[in-house]
From TrEMBL:
Keywords annotated in UniProt: Cell membrane, Membrane, Transmembrane, Transmembrane helix
Name of the molecule in the record: LysE family translocator
Membrane topology per record: Multi-pass membrane protein
Pfam family, one: LysE
Organism of provenance: Phenylobacterium ferrooxidans
PANTHER family per record: ARGININE EXPORTER PROTEIN ARGO, ARGININE EXPORTER PROTEIN ARGO-RELATED
Keyword field contains Glycoprotein: no
Keyword GTP-binding found: no
Length: 204
C-alpha cells in the first residue's frame, strides 16, 4: 500500500470522529468554558485544541513518538506531569465563577495554552500514536502522516465545536450562582475521573 486509499481514509475519518466526539479532558474543558464564558470567548481554546492536536499528530508521525520507544521512562514522566496539570485545571474549573453581572470573573484558555495542553494529555498521545500506527502506510510515509494530521484537524474541529456549543446552550440554565457552581464542580470531577485510566496504567 503506497498511500492512503479512499477506504483507509474513510476508516481514519471514523477513527478520528469516535476519538474526538467521545468525552475526554479536552471536551470536558471546552464544555465548561462554553458554559462559563460563551462561544466567542472560547474560540481560541477551541482552535488551540483542533490545530494543536493536528500538529502533535504530525510531530509524532515524523519521529517524536520514537522517543517513547527509545526511552520508555519518558512515558511515565509525561503521565505524571499531565496528571498534575489536569488536577490543577480541575481546581480552576471548580473555582471558576464564570459570568457574574455580565463580567467574566475568570479567563478561558488561550490558543497557545490549549495547544500546549495536548502534549500532556494522555488521551491525545494515545490517539496520535494509534492514528499513525494504523493509518500511515510506510511508502510515501511523510505524505501519509501529513494527510493523517489534516484529516484529524478536519474531523476534530467540528467535534470540539459541538461540545463547546453544548456548554453554551447550558448557559441559560446556569444563571444562578449555586447552579453554576454545581455545574463547574461536576465538570471538575469528570476531568479528574478521566485520570483513572492513567493512574491505573502508571501504577501497573
Amino acid at each position: 500500500m503506497t498511500s492512503l486509499t479512499p477506504h483507509l481514509l474513510l476508516a481514519l475519518a471514523l477513527f478520528a470522529f469516535v476519538n474526538s466526539i467521545t468525552p475526554g479532558p479536552n471536551n470536558t474543558m471546552l464544555m465548561a468554558s462554553g458554559a462559563n464564558f460563551g462561544f466567542r470567548a472560547t474560540l481560541p481554546h477551541l482552535s488551540g485544541v483542533a490545530i494543536g492536536f493536528g500538529v502533535m499528530v504530525l510531530a509524532v508521525g515524523l519521529g517524536l513518538g520514537g522517543l517513547f520507544l527509545a526511552f520508555p521512562w519518558l512515558h511515565d514522566v509525561l503521565a505524571v506531569a499531565g496528571g498534575l496539570y489536569m488536577i490543577w485545571l480541575a481546581w480552576k474549573i471548580a473555582t471558576s465563577k464564570g459570568m457574574a453581572g455580565g463580567q467574566a470573573s475568570g479567563r478561558p484558555q488561550t490558543f497557545w495554552q490549549a495547544a500546549a495542553f495536548q502534549w500532556v494529555n494522555p488521551k491525545a498521545w494515545a490517539m496520535a500514536i494509534g492514528a499513525i500506527t494504523a493509518y500511515a502506510p510506510a511508502e510515501n510515509y511523510n505524505l501519509n502522516v501529513l494527510l493523517v494530521a489534516l484529516v484529524f484537524m478536519a474531523v476534530n474541529g467540528p467535534c470540539v465545536t459541538i461540545w463547546t456549543s453544548f456548554g453554551v446552550g447550558l448557559r441559560r440554565f446556569l444563571d444562578r450562582p449555586a447552579v453554576l457552581k454545581a455545574f463547574n464542580v461536576t465538570m471538575a470531577l469528570l476531568l479528574l475521573a478521566s485520570l483513572i485510566p492513567l493512574t491505573m496504567e502508571v501504577a501497573g
